[in-house]
Amino acid sequence: MPSIADGAPGDTPQRVQVDARINAPTDTPIDTPIDTPIDTPIDTPLGIICCGGTVPYAVADAAIRRGRKVVMFPLRGWADVSTVGAYSHHWIALGQFGRFCRLAHREGCRDIVLVGGLIRPSILQLRLDWGTLMQMPLLIRSFRGGDDHLLSGVARMLERDGFRVIGAHEVAPEITAPVGVLGRVSPGAAVEHDIEQGFALLAAMSAFDVGQAAVIAGRRVLAIEAAEGTDALLDRIAAMRAAGRITLPAGAGVLVKAPKRRQDRRFDLPSIGPNTIDRAARAGLAGIAVIGGATIVAEPQRLVEAADRAGMFVVGCLDAEAPK
Amino acid sequence: MPSIADGAPGDTPQRVQVDARINAPTDTPIDTPIDTPIDTPIDTPLGIICCGGTVPYAVADAAIRRGRKVVMFPLRGWADVSTVGAYSHHWIALGQFGRFCRLAHREGCRDIVLVGGLIRPSILQLRLDWGTLMQMPLLIRSFRGGDDHLLSGVARMLERDGFRVIGAHEVAPEITAPVGVLGRVSPGAAVEHDIEQGFALLAAMSAFDVGQAAVIAGRRVLAIEAAEGTDALLDRIAAMRAAGRITLPAGAGVLVKAPKRRQDRRFDLPSIGPNTIDRAARAGLAGIAVIGGATIVAEPQRLVEAADRAGMFVVGCLDAEAPK
C-alpha cells in the first residue's frame, strides 16, 4: 500500500492530501483531477486576506495551480514577512478596511478569502481608517459576541462593498482533511465512544459560539476549548498529567475538533498541523478526530509524518451536517 | 443597612450566612432559627467522609450546633491533619471501603456525608481492601465516565452496605450561598446577559457530566471548566490577559458556577471560597454568579470581605431546577 511517508521530498501538500485519501473508505482514484469546486469567475484575481501560519500560502498555491491570479493582503503583525514576498501583495493593518477595499477593487478582485490564525483583537487596538469608521456601528455590534459572530460581521462589511466572501476550503478543498484515516495508525474500537461523545459535546456547545475542540478519555471530558486555543488546551492536559490531576495511562484520550454547527464555514474552520500532533503527543493522547472536508490541515505531509512517528491516529470523520 | 463586613470578629460562618440573606429579595427574618432540613434520626451520629479544604469542618460544626454527634472519616492525603484532630475521627485511605464500613457501623453511623475537595484518583492508586474488592465490578464501571457518575457509584456502594448518603447542604443549608447579593457590590445590568448565557451554557453541557463553571465577557465565552478545576480556569483568564490573547478592560467578565442539571446533589455541589475571589480578582473579572442554595460557600465571612475589598460582586441566582 502506498504510504504518505514514502512520498518523495518536495512533494506538494496537494499530493499528500490525495495520498491520504487512499486510506479513506472511498473509491476516489489517486489521480482524479481536482475541479474548481465553486462557480468562480476564474478571470478575476482571488484576494486573500492572510493572517498567521502557513495555511494562507497553501490556499494561494492551490488557486495558482488552477491558473488563477492571486493577490495577497497580509495583515501586519500576523502574516509572515518572508513568505508573503513570493506573491503579489499589499500589506494592511487591522482596521484598515477602507485601504483594503480601495486596493482590492483596484486589483480587480471580486472574490475574497479570509484565512490564517488571528488572535481576536480588542476593538481599541484597531488602526481605524475612514472606511472602517463608516462601518463602526456594525463593527461594534460584531465585537459583542463570539468569534463566529465577529467574522460574520466582517464578511457583511466586505459584501456591502461589493465583494464576495468565499471559504478557503471552497477555493482549495485539498487543504482540508479527507474522510478516513491519515497516516499509519487507526483509531481502535476503544476510542469510538469517546470520539462520538466529543462531537456530541461540541455540537451541544455550538449555539453558544464556542467550543471547536475538547479532549475526552474513558468517557470523561478532560478539557474544553474556549478563547485559549487548541495549543493551550493540549498543554493543559500535559500539565494536569504532570501534576497528577489526571491519572491516565499514556496513549489514552482523544482530541476532537469540529466546526460549530450552523456556523458560516467561509471562515474560522478548525485546523490542525504538525504542531498539533507534537502537542497532542506531549499530552499523551491516543489520537485526533476531526470532521472530513471541514477541517484545514496545515502542512499535511509533515503532520502525517509526525503522527506516524508518535504512533498517534488522525482520523477524518463523516460530517453530520453535510448535504446528503 | 447591616453589612457583613460589620460583623463582630469571631462571628461564625452561620451568622455571616444569615446576614448575607439580608440582601436577598426574600422576607427571611434575620433570626429565623435554622431547622434540621431533612428527616434525620438525630440520635445516630453523622459520619462525614472528609476530603480537602475547610468545608467538611463547617458541615461538622453545623451538625454539632444542632446537637448531633459527628464522626469524621478523614481521607489520608486529602484532609487536614491539624484541623481534624478537634473532632472524633478515624483516618481512612482511598479504596479502604471495607475499613470504612466496619468503623462506621461500629460507631453507629447511619447517615453519611461525602464532602470536600478531592482530585479524582486513578483506579490504580486506590489502596484496595477486601470490602472494596468485593465491589470491584461496580467500582470499575463507575470509573468510566465523569465525576458525577463516579460519585453515584460510590454512593451506591455505601447504600448497598446499609448507609444513607445525604448531601452536605441538607445537613447544613447555611453553608450554601443564599439567593441574592453577598457583600456590598451588586451586579450591574451590563452583566445580566453574560450571567444568563453562562447558566444556559452550563445547562447545555450537563448531559456530558462536565462543566460546572465558565467565564463569559461581553456575550463571549472565554473559558470553560472541565478536569482542571475553577482555580486553573481563573488562572487561565489571567494568563490570557497577560499574553494579550484576550483584550478586555479590567473589571469585565463573570465567573458562572452551577451544579449539573439532574445531578445527584448529595455530593459534588459547586463551591466558592475566599481563594476563588482572589483568583477572580487577579483575572480581572467583575464578579461571580452562582445558584443560591446549590453552591457551597467556604468561609463566607472571609469570602465577602475579599469580594468587598476587590470591588467584585457575588450573587446567588434563583435555581431553575428548584421544586416550585
Properties at a glance:
homodimer; 324 residues; alpha/beta; 6-stranded mixed beta sheet; 4-stranded parallel beta sheet; 12 helices; 15% strand; disordered N terminus
Which helices and strands occur, and which strands form pairs?
The structure is a homodimer of 324-residue chains.
Chain A: H1 13-20, E1 46-50, H2 55-65, E2 70-74, H3 81-84, H4 97-106, E3 111-115, H5 130-133, H6 136-143, H7 147-160, E4 164-165, H8 168-171, E5 180-182, H9 192-205, E6 213-217, E7 220-224, H10 229-242, E8 254-257, E9 271-272, H11 274-282, E10 287-291, E11 296-297, H12 300-310, E12 313-317
Parallel strand pairs in A: 1-2, 1-3, 3-4, 8-10, 9-11, 10-12
Antiparallel strand pairs in A: 5-12, 6-7, 6-8
Question: What would your notes on this structure say?
Answer:
The structure is a homodimer of 324-residue chains. Chain A is an alpha/beta fold and 324 residues long. The first copy, chain A, contains 12 helices and 12 strands. Chain A has helices at residues 13-20, 55-65, 81-84, 97-106, 130-133, 136-143, 147-160, 168-171, 192-205, 229-242, 274-282, 300-310; strands spanning 46-50, 70-74, 111-115, 164-165, 180-182, 213-217, 220-224, 254-257, 271-272, 287-291, 296-297, 313-317. In chain A, strands 5-12-10-8-6-7 form a 6-stranded mixed sheet, sandwiched between helices. Residues 1-38 of chain A have low confidence and may be disordered. The interface between A and B is large, with 44 and 44 residues.
